[in-house]
Automatic annotation (TrEMBL):
Keywords: NADP, Oxidoreductase. Homotetramer. GO terms for molecular function: carbonyl reductase (NADPH) activity; L-xylulose reductase (NADPH) activity. GO terms for biological process: glucose metabolic process; xylulose metabolic process. This is L-xylulose reductase. InterPro entries: L-xylulose/Carbonyl_redctase (IPR051737), NAD(P)-bd_dom_sf (IPR036291), Sc_DH/Rdtase_CS (IPR020904), SDR_fam (IPR002347). Pfam families: adh_short (PF00106), adh_short_C2 (PF13561). PROSITE patterns: ADH_SHORT (PS00061). Belongs to the short-chain dehydrogenases/reductases (SDR) family. It comes from Ovis ammon polii.
Amino acid sequence: MQLNFSGLRALVTGAGKGIGRDTVKALHASGARVVAVSRTNADLVSLSKECPGIEPVCVDLGDWGATEKALGDVGPVDLLVNNAAVALMRPFLEVTKEDFDRSFSVNLRAVFQVSQIVARGMINRGVPGSIVNVSSMVAHVPFPSLAAYSSTKGAMTTLTKSMALELGPYKIRVNSVNPTVVLTAMGQKVSADPEFSRKLKERHPLKKFAEVEDVVNSILFLLSDRSASTSGSETVCVDLADWEATEQALRGVGPVDLLVNNAAVAFLQPFLEVTKEAYDMSFSVNLRAVIQVSQIVARGLIARGAPGVIVNVSSQASQRGLTNHSVYCSTKGALDILTKVMAVELGPHKIRVNAVNPTVVMTPMGQAAWSDPQKAKAMLDRIPLGRFAEMENVVDTIPFLLSDHSSMTTGSTVPVDGGFLAT
Ligand SMILES: NC(=O)c1ccc[n+]([C@@H]2O[C@H](COP(=O)([O-])OP(=O)(O)OC[C@H]3O[C@@H](n4cnc5c(N)ncnc54)[C@H](OP(=O)(O)O)[C@@H]3O)[C@@H](O)[C@H]2O)c1
């Protein structure tokens, strides 16, 4: 992934092997100065040969005192990747105190400790920063014999939101990535049973596990503060609320590889005053047209045997109740679940489907709803980063989801919300 991190200093934990090692290499290649933290010195020696100039730190992150000593004076860090973890496999009934303590001290307590050190430094210097916690699919989906590990990752999901809430006002962004199985040493261990592995893979709409590169790309994207570029366009003028007109306008549209379902309307009405017209128009444009246009495009992709990507522009309103937005919220809630069902059904055809969920953006739609300073303040007070999104924040996320850099991401709803949904 071509990103420029020159001038920035990054710290990656668990840098000796697997995902952490490749993250260091990618950050180094993108111009960052990198502090590589791991436990086995030989790994750090070989990594330093591959990436001259990195700063290796050999420490057991499960040891609070040793970590304080090794990293307490680490100096300025702009980007932090909390990646180190252990996956101790044991049936739930046999989990020991030692398993539990080791899992939580490395996978979670060290995230508290290293993030505190790094975030305090950012706050003292008055600079923005970005932290990515490497979590796992098992934060949401149970895996046999991984009760302790899965619990650490479930806790990490909530910790990530808490950190986003508290660090947002200092312009420190905090996100997690939740990969499926990646066949690193850890991934091979947890998926060693061939029958289990086969069934698990079958459950994935894309019918495959992730590559290390997929995870590294997501980490780098979340660390970055990136701006987009555009190329030429063909125009089609049609009212998407009109099924027949849309059918006619897009029937002959020809091959489309990437689709962004962005059109939407928002009528603000108190729930008790919602009209049939507002309801019908909202669902026709915000949801029915997504189904119709996506059917046209996906049928074309399947007929050509080509892979494709669809991005649905949803909203933070899909997941929170907002006053006077009952119809709009409903359309976006429906769009989120539609995104997941499309991902499940279209995945086997190599068509990925994701949603982006922005907070308020001051487009004409945003202005209509949020120009009143009192209303805006009440919303801004709920956003950890303390601001509405700029257009480019949304526009930056869409090309990532459309590109091969997110080739293992499907069925997800990606917030671009300044942390609103973490609250
Ligand atoms: N692989 C997967 O299937 C998968 C799926 C979802 C999420 N993840 C997550 O992705 C991250 C990286 O996993 P991976 O597959 O790359 O694992 P890996 O191949 O086992 O590498 C883990 C790295 O972390 C280091 N580490 C572990 N404990 C440490 C400690 N106490 N102090 C310092 N360093 C320590 C290891 O060093 P030593 O070898 O020297 O101990 C190693 O360099 C983890 O957070 C994992 O939970 C992995």
